[in-house]
Write a structure and sequence with these properties.
13% strand; alpha/beta; six-stranded parallel sheet; single chain
Amino acid sequence: MEALRGVRILDMTHVQAGPTCSQLLAWMGADVIKFENPQGDATRGQLRDVPNADSLYFTMLNCNKRSITVNMKSPEGKQVFVDLLKKCDMIMENFGPGVLDRFGFTWEKIHQLNPKIVMGSIKGFGSSGPYSDFKAYENVAQAMGGAMSTTGVPDGPPFVTGAQIGDTGTGLHLAIGLLAALRQADRTGQGQYVEVAMMDGVMNLCRVKFRDHQRLTRQNLSEYSVPTSQGMGDVPRAGNDSGGGQLGNAIHCKPHGPNDWLYVVVQEAVWEDLAKRIGPDVGMPEMASDPRFAKIGERRKNQNLMWTLINKFAEKYTKRELMAILNPLDVPCGPIMSTQDLAADEHVRGRDMWVELDHPQRGTWFNVGMPIKLSASPALIKRSPTLGEHTAQILQEVLGYPEEKIAALKTAGAFSVPPKKAA
């Protein structure tokens, strides 16, 4: 049995942050009803690569959901919304500040209509505080949450991460909050409002940088490869430093292309064996006992030299060959893998993390799989819905509307924008 079977979610979210959350819950078995306006989620048409088909931006974030289109600007559409509210365990939204309120559906009103419902809300900066009315996007959240100021190299500009920590990271945070609130609602019979701000979520993912921020009030950061000093204030950008207690960095390998790198972590426990293997090849047979490297404190002080020597050793090996040398020494390491590497990787395919699907508009395509593996209820990934694909099904099965009522609502424009009157 699916873990969340029997849980019904009214999903009003769009673009990336909210759909990430609801897709994850759908993969766990929740019945996710994607509630769209008649034009549909904007990402259906954004970055489109197949004419007249839903874009990958949409399909990769909306699997296992059912789609209903409702015109909330009509009284009939609002009534459909109210009826669905009463049949759902959760409602999710990531509109701009005040959008649902202007439709007449504040949290207080929603709670009155269904006291047990849990409401999940994603905002750029939350519903309180001086930034609450600001709009946010992925990179704005990274900029204001601490990620960009600590990503990159000291003399260069701040960088955003390739991973979508502002949108997808926030969606993951919301999923945790919703499941906790659902558990409480099952015990108490009362739902609650669950809010996650994108800025807050990014700050949480930058936790180790705030660790270092406080350490700088008492000491320098000896594990950093760039200069630091007590009282310097801002945590610096430090390139590919590991960010932990052990030294780490990316090592360039042959043929020295943009992704021909191996990330290597030099743990205290593996140093002697690593140095004995590398030393003779770089003209330092006594590298393991060299006073500049023998103890971890000295390696931290001289880490730029250490990385130079390891890079020299790596010049004649590919990243996979270097990995094969280091793995028997128990050195933690991993090749920098491109999207093409990952899409073709045996390990990735074997763990169902690159899943082939069929779509009536697109044909075959691939989605990233379910990263959470449940032993008793593994995810079965299904394609995303076309716009309004399940409108009639939801009205009949969930709300019990007879065909005559559905026809009347359709005529009244409850599911589409009514045609403009002729001049």
